Amino acid sequence: MSLMKLSSRMARIATESAFEVLVRARELEARGRDVIHLEIGEPDFPTPRHIVEAGQRALADGWTKYGPPKGLPELREAIADDVSRSRGIHVGAEHVCVVPGGKPMIFFPMLALLDAGDEVIYPNPGFPTYESMIDFLGARPVPVREFTAESLERALTARTKLIILNSPQNPTGGVIPAADVRAMAEVLRERDVVVLSDEIYSHIWFGEPPLSIASLPGMLEKTIILDGFSKTYSMTGWRLGYGVMPLALVDAVNKLMVNSNSCTASFTQRAAIAALRGPQDDVTAMVNEFRRRRDAFVEALNGVPGFRCPLPEGAFYAFPNIEGTGMKSKALADALLNEAGVASLSGTAFGEYGEGHLRFSMANSYENLMRAVERIDGFVRLHCR
Ligand code: PLP
């Protein structure tokens, strides 16, 4: 067969290195090496039992057919209630679109909104899909290291179409302080821009609760709230996410769903209703366990020569500065995997401003996290300046 010629846009799409590192780590394991996995951003807890049972019941009851492209009405209702309560706003089910995972709620709004040359302001270091999709669609990436009213104002131009916020944040674990969210809303209120507020970690925070920019006056009309079930309910493999957005965008996302997925799986949506309407004890227990791990892991990391790690305020990632080791991020991440048996991600997997950092996912047991720091410490003391 002749060489298959891909479209030119395929040269502008990136992959996610968490999956690549996982493959390399699995290869090492196949050769008999012991690897501690701190690379993948997936809660290590099982999906709560009552949610699994609701999914099983739905299968048995015949929820195995196409459903409405925007999602089952009962789930959209449950989401509208949950988002209204947790963000202190009032949104109706007509503003909700259910999609297969959080990621489509990044891709679809961007497809719906961006023309070539439109500028998108987004976090760097940040979730790699943002930058990848901006490039893919021929829009202009405008990276921002830290979101404040000042940095936002500096980045805004007449061509700015979309601003992506993510709090609690991947990979830093940072939560944007409420005062900064308020100040950013002041900057944006009168502007003709759209905000994609990625709140996939909305339930996983340890100090000040994250403030959704959508809850501030004049902002709901121009904001897409992205959230989902992957992290909060440990349902990464079920592929369930959603967006709450203005009606014009609901219509656009609906058309994109019709043309790409038809609908999100019906029985998983029944399980999602049970997740939102049922007991939340498992979520609380998971967040408490993440806090326990965070406290011990970050304290131990700060004892490693050349590592400086702020205390993450949300999500389940530690993002230490490792410049003091004298090594570049990618070289250190590779060496820790190959020499010390600890899989982590280079900060540069999250954009060029991630240089000087590593990301560790704390989605592994307390014991394994402590063993990992011992290995990292041993490696750094032997090999770094
Ligand atoms: N947004 C952020 C910031 C994430 O970290 C992730 C997953 O890692 C997602 C969105 C996508 O979540 P999902 O697995 O539901 O597509």
Brief characterization of the structure:
By secondary structure, the chain is of the alpha/beta class. It folds into 2 domains: 8-46 and 281-383, Alpha-Beta Complex (Aspartate Aminotransferase, domain 1), CATH 3.90.1150.10; 50-277, Aspartate Aminotransferase, domain 2 (3-Layer(aba) Sandwich). 40% of the residues lie in helices and 12% in strands.
Q: Please, could you describe this protein's structure?
A:
The protein has 385 residues and is of the alpha/beta class. It has two domains: 142 residues, Aspartate Aminotransferase, domain 1 (Alpha-Beta Complex); 228 residues, 3-Layer(aba) Sandwich (Aspartate Aminotransferase, domain 2). Helices cover 40% and strands 12% of the residues. The strands form three sheets. Strands 2-8-7-6-5-3-4 form a seven-stranded mixed beta sheet, sandwiched between helices. Strands 9-12-11 form a three-stranded antiparallel beta sheet. Strands 1-10 form a two-stranded parallel sheet. Helix 2 packs antiparallel against helix 9, helix 3 runs parallel beside helix 9 and helix 6 packs parallel to helix 7. The model has no long low-confidence stretch (mean pLDDT 97). Bound molecules: pyridoxal-5'-phosphate. The site of pyridoxal-5'-phosphate has 13 residues, from loops. Pyridoxal-5'-phosphate binds next to loops.
The largest beta-sheet arranges its strands as 2-8-7-6-5-3-4
Strand share of the residues?
5-15%
Unique bound compounds = pyridoxal-5'-phosphate
Biggest sheet features: 7 strands, mixed
How much helical structure, as a percent, in the residues? 40-55%
CATH architecture of the largest domain: 3-Layer(aba) Sandwich
Radius of gyration: 21 Å
CATH class term of the largest domain: Alpha Beta
**What is the string of helix and strand elements?**
HEHHEHEHEHEHEEEHHHEHEEEH
Count of DSSP E strands? 12
Average pLDDT metric: 97
- In whole angstroms, the N-to-C terminal distance is 53 Å
Low-pLDDT segments:
none
Total number of domains = 2
Number of helices: 12
SSE class: alpha/beta
**Outline, from the CA principal axes?**
globular
- CATH fold-type name of the largest domain: Aspartate Aminotransferase, domain 2
CATH homologous superfamily of the largest domain, by name? Type I PLP-dependent aspartate aminotransferase-like (Major domain)
